[in-house]
Amino acid sequence: MKLPLIALSLIYISLTNVRAQYRVRHSLIPYSEVGIGAGSAIYRGDLAPISQLVQPIAPLPRWNIGLHYTRHLTPYFSARASFTWIRLVGDDYTYNKDNPNRNPVQFHRNLHFRNDLKELAVSGIYQFRPETPRPDQRPFLTPYLTLGLALVAHNPQARIPTRLSGDGLGEWTDLQPLGTEGQGQPGYAKPYSLITLAIPVGMGLRWKLNQRLNVSAELSFRYTFTDYLDDVSGLYPNKSDLSNEQAAVLSDRRYEATDARTGQSRTYELASLTSVSTNVRRGLPGNDIYILTQLAVHYLIPTSIKCPDWR
């Protein structure tokens, strides 16, 4: 009678140990990391149409710099909060100067902008390789996907013509208060908001540099809920309806002889156009997007390692 009891006891102890080892192997001690990163920023919208991806995707790449806080919750899932400062630029002239007749309407329109975005985002991260229970034993190389929601503050600007600002390149001025498509005037739409939402979705690769440092490379797309990162969306307004001369000038730049952003002459290219724009449309409906690349360094915040519960 004692032998079966001893055998059952050994089996129970063995199963308990196996279960405990499985729990330890497939669990994770939650830990956090902070990071800083920088990279490029690419705008796609009315001044660099998404539909024309066969053309160079990055005629005017600019920059971004960001801070991150990541909490690793399970072997596969993490949560990240980030703040990113982003510079976007678009220019009809630069995008089409090599071949004005490729998009003659867009070249003739001659609009440009720059926009500094401040983005606060919360994202979920799915890792294709699971974390080990101890952060210092994490995988050397980990591919991952991200999906989140971002709050974005923005403020599109353009250079005013030199005839209004004096010699040299014109000064940058805020476009939203001018209502370049008549916003805020009787019979026109309300001014667009300088706060919008965006959906960040991306992919990345993380390297374990040492026990305390990670390095990551990430490519992400931001679909925004505004068509006004570039201040371009609707129809040309009647100039007489606008609030002042500066608003009228910045609303319609089709007949300027230079590209105000760069100061380059457009005379030769304008003469070569096979058709010019008499269209009442200034822009086309469709929300803007931007694309970020970022290389980041992450520091793992030390965490206490608890002994596993073998009971």
UniProtKB/TrEMBL annotation:
Residues 32-155 form the DUF6089 domain. InterPro entries: DUF6089, OMP/PagP_B-barrel. It comes from the Bacteria. Coiled coil: none annotated. Gene3D superfamilies: 2.40.160.20. This is DUF6089 domain-containing protein.
